[in-house]
Amino acid sequence: MVTRGDARREQILYAAMVVFADHGYHRASLAGIAEQVGISQTGLLHHFPTKRHLLTAVLEARDRLDREWLAELDPDGLSGPRLLVSLLRLVDRNRRLGGLVQIYTALSGESVTDDHPARTWFTDRYERVTGSVEDGLRHGVARGTVRPDTDCAALAREVVAVMDGLQLQWLLRPERVDMVACFRDYATRLVRSVAVDPAPVEALLATAVPVPLTAGAG
C-alpha cells in the first residue's frame, strides 16, 4: 500500500530530477525543488535531510527502475550473448525516456570534479555495471554460449563505454544519431565475434525493439 509519505517522496524525486537536469547539482536549490512540489523546504527536508541525500536518491531511483524493468522483461536475458539483446532493449527504452537520460548524463558529467557529491556514486556504479556485464559474459563462457577466449573484463568496459558514448552523442544531435540502430549494429558485430552460435542472437537483435516501457504492458 502506497502511503501519503511515499507519494510525496516520489513527487519530490521527480521534481528533483527535473531541477537537477535543468540547473545541475550545484546551482539547484532545495527551495526551488520544494516549490515545484508545492511544499516548504522544511517539508522537503523531512523526507531528504540534505541535498546530497536527495541527489543519491534520484540516481538510485533511476538505476532501480532500469534493473527492475530488464529483469521483468526477460529474466533469462542477462547472461551470455543474449545480454546484448537486453542492453539493446535498454537503449531503446532510454531513447523514449530522454528526460531521465539527460538527467543522468548531466550529473555524470558534473561528477568528474573531485568535490562533487556524486563522484563516489558514479565511480561505484561504473564498477557495478561493468561487473554485471562481465559476469553475464563469463556465465555465457561457462554455459558454452560465449567463446572461451573472450576477454570478458575488457569487453564489458567496451560495451558500457559504447552505450554511454552513443547516449551522449544522441543527446547532442538526436536528429543525426540513431543510437538504437548504432547499438544494434555494434551488438551484431560483437555477437558474430564472441558467440559460439551467433545466428539465434542475431535474429533476436533484429526484432528486439521496440518493447513496452513497462514490461507488463501489452
End-to-end Cα distance, whole Å, is 25 Å
- Largest β sheet strand count, sense and barrel closure: none
> Architecture of the largest domain, CATH level 2?
Orthogonal Bundle
Shape: elongated
Q: Treating each run of at least 4 consecutive H or I residues as one helix, how many helices? A: 10
Number of beta strands: 0
**Helical coverage, percent range:** over 70%
Overall mean pLDDT = 88
Unreliable sequence segments? none
Radius of gyration over alpha carbons? 19 Å
Number of domains: 2
* Assembly type: single chain
Q: Specify the CATH class of the largest domain.
A: Mainly Alpha
**Topology pattern, helix = H, strand = E:** HHHHHHHHHH
Word description of this protein:
The chain is mainly alpha-helical. The chain has 2 domains: 1-49, Orthogonal Bundle (Arc Repressor Mutant, subunit A); 59-208, Tetracycline Repressor, domain 2. 74% of the residues lie in helices and 0% in strands. The protein contains 10 helices and no strands. The chain has helices at residues 4-27, 30-37, 41-47, 51-73, 82-96, 98-110, 119-143, 152-172, 179-194, 198-207. Helix 7 packs across helix 8. The chain is elongated. The protein starts with a helix and ends in an 11-residue tail after the last helix. The relative contact order is 0.12.
